[in-house]
């Protein structure tokens, strides 16, 4: 049990070799029931040296043997830290007890499930709250600028959307998860429609009844796009800088980022009257509609940034980054600046140095 484990302590990173930490997931299985996993999350913290000096152009294209490049094969997690007022959980980290937030514990549970179900999924994962010593200000100042290279070098960036409920029973949890799953399943439907017929034709099909989705499906989709994950500041760089696969986890579903972006673009492209009629359908069924249009705009903008980077336009105009960050949420006010430095031209970003020890009066 984690209660009997000693507290965890960090070992310093070797800055000369551009060292980072990665956690290595250990998906334990109950011997008496091989299909069920042991509740306690166990992982090892490993130090990994970079084989050269990390830079934007050093990121290996898909298909190369990642073990011979940079920090090797690993996934990078993108998630919401969550309120510090929520109860904490503990994991076993290199044999010691380590405290994590409820949202991170949920994300780790999903990652362990991925590793158990897919042998090709990386066992090593970079997670800011664990791989950076958050109590060491000097280390944070050095590691945060490196995040641009970490997310760019990751074999896959995993976006873990947090559940938005506090469940009191397993039955309640199952009902909520089913709602999540319904919304997540609407995403590929709209993504396919975006590719096949486009927003204009889909709007005509919806208005004539040729295509019909249930109010439950629409309501669940709205909740998917209203999730607080999409308001988080750090996802701007984590998604925009990802150079390979992006996987969105929601409920029991794994959704490729491209399908999320396509669904968002299609819904935003629907005529206002069509979007309003869908919202009225949801409200008429007794379900509430949480505002999410700004989140849809952010998703579409993030996809545009990714497309620009692929087309060798790596640095958007600073006003674009500022516009995305303006309404985004950040626990630390400094991150309103630090969180977008990696997107702008180095001639500008290098003039600002991260300092989490500086106190503003």
TrEMBL record:
<dbReference type="InterPro" id="IPR052895">
    <property type="entry name" value="HetReg/Transcr_Mod"/>
</dbReference>
<dbReference type="Pfam" id="PF06985">
    <property type="entry name" value="HET"/>
</dbReference>
<feature type="domain" description="Heterokaryon incompatibility">
    <location>
        <begin position="74"/>
        <end position="238"/>
    </location>
</feature>
<dbReference type="InterPro" id="IPR010730">
    <property type="entry name" value="HET"/>
</dbReference>
<protein>
    <recommendedName>
        <fullName>Heterokaryon incompatibility domain-containing protein</fullName>
    </recommendedName>
</protein>
